[in-house]
Design a protein that fits this description.
alpha/beta; 351 residues; 46% helix
């Protein structure tokens, strides 16, 4: 079916059938139209902004016992998408990133100290995927099995300003090169204009572009760019829309727009996936990305995940941190926990 792209005020567009998506059909019924999608999204309960921010602030005050701190630090590492998304990225830089992903703390390994786990994934631009796959070698695979996956940003990241044909080609190229996960960006302009059907169908199309020759799919993370959505109600609607269209994860940000990830927004997105699970029995992941640089902040996110969605979400296929510098701080905190003192800044690599 040809995706619709008319303005939402056009009667034909409002009544037009949308491209099929299994989740949306199950929830909204077989008559999947823009009108049905709009009715569902605009019928969602409004977000109590004051209440949300108070809950987030309360969760941020929760402390973790010293005996649990080592577990928390290693859990954070296992949930990190170690990221380099710069125009100056080179194959050599990606190989260095992979080396750090596989062995975050070489000094610990050399001294028989407690060796930290591997990160969940390395996240790169699509043209860097072959270099990441090659560098990972036999360690490339499912992060839930202790391996490291390759995530690629796609769909004209970070702006999303390209034709659908270009976005789909971008995705297909990354999957063909060996990407295990695709981080796509939604068309925020279309969403803010109320053209939910256009955003929905683009996610459906990108999901199909994640199909591999054997019929399996690369995991799809849908980036909402919450800093541009302006309201919590919009974040909630965009989260539901992305899940209905087939997203495996909902992700806060590209890391290129301020504000990026915040605890209240992540809490709201966790509430959405919790409600989706209660409604359907299906789990969807959440990925806050951008601005999470210190272990103490990441711990607050762990607490928020456990208290909101449940401890089941504290594993790589359901929760990730999109980060580049967070790993260094976690390694310094691990060293402090092991030795009782902080190492100098040269203990960790500068990426």
């Amino acid at each position: 079916m040809t995706p619709t792209s008319s303005a939402p005020g056009d009667r034909a567009a409002v009544e037009a059938a949308l491209a099929p998506a299994e989740r949306a059909v199950r929830l909204l019924g077989g008559d999947l139209t823009e009108r049905a999608l709009r009715r569902h999204l605009e019928g969602l309960a409004g977000v109590d902004a004051v209440g949300l921010e108070q809950r987030a602030a309360g969760l941020a005050t929760r402390s973790i016992k010293t005996t649990s701190k080592a577990w928390a630090l290693d859990t954070i590492i296992r949930l990190i998408d170690l990221t380099t998304l710069e125009g100056a990225d080179t194959p050599g830089k990606v190989r260095s990133l992979v080396a750090k992903a596989l062995q975050p703390d070489p000094a610990a390994a050399a001294t028989d100290a407690s060796v930290p786990p591997r990160v969940a994934a390395v996240c790169v631009y699509g043209d860097m995927v072959p270099h990441a796959v090659e560098a990972l070698g036999a360690a490339h695979g499912d992060p839930d099995d202790g391996l490291v996956s390759v995530a690629a940003v796609a769909t004209a990241f970070p702006s999303g300003r390209a034709s659908r044909r270009v976005k789909l080609a971008d995705t297909q190229d990354a999957v063909a090169a060996g990407a295990d996960e695709i981080d796509m960006v939604i068309d925020r302009g279309a969403f803010l204009a109320g053209d939910y059907g256009r955003v929905f169908e683009e996610i459906v199309a990108v999901k199909e572009a994640c199909r591999r020759p054997d019929g399996s799919f690369a995991s799809l993370k849908v980036i909402l760019e919450t800093g541009e959505l302006t309201t919590y109600d919009n974040v909630k609607r965009a989260s539901w829309l992305a899940i209905l269209a087939g997203g495996d994860f909902i992700k806060t940000s590209t890391g290129k727009v301020s504000p990026a990830a915040t605890l209240p927004v992540t809490l709201l997105m966790l509430e959405v996936v919790r409600d989706w699970y209660r409604l359907t029995g299906e789990r969807v992941g959440v990925k806050p990305a951008g601005g999470i640089r210190q272990s103490k902040d990441a711990v607050r996110y762990l607490v928020t995940v456990a208290e909101t969605a449940g401890e089941e979400w504290l594993q790589p296929h359901l929760f990730r941190f999109g980060a580049s510098s967070l790993l260094n701080d976690v390694l310094l905190q691990r060293q402090k926990l092991a030795t009782g003192r902080y190492s100098g800044p040269d203990y960790v690599t500068v990426d």
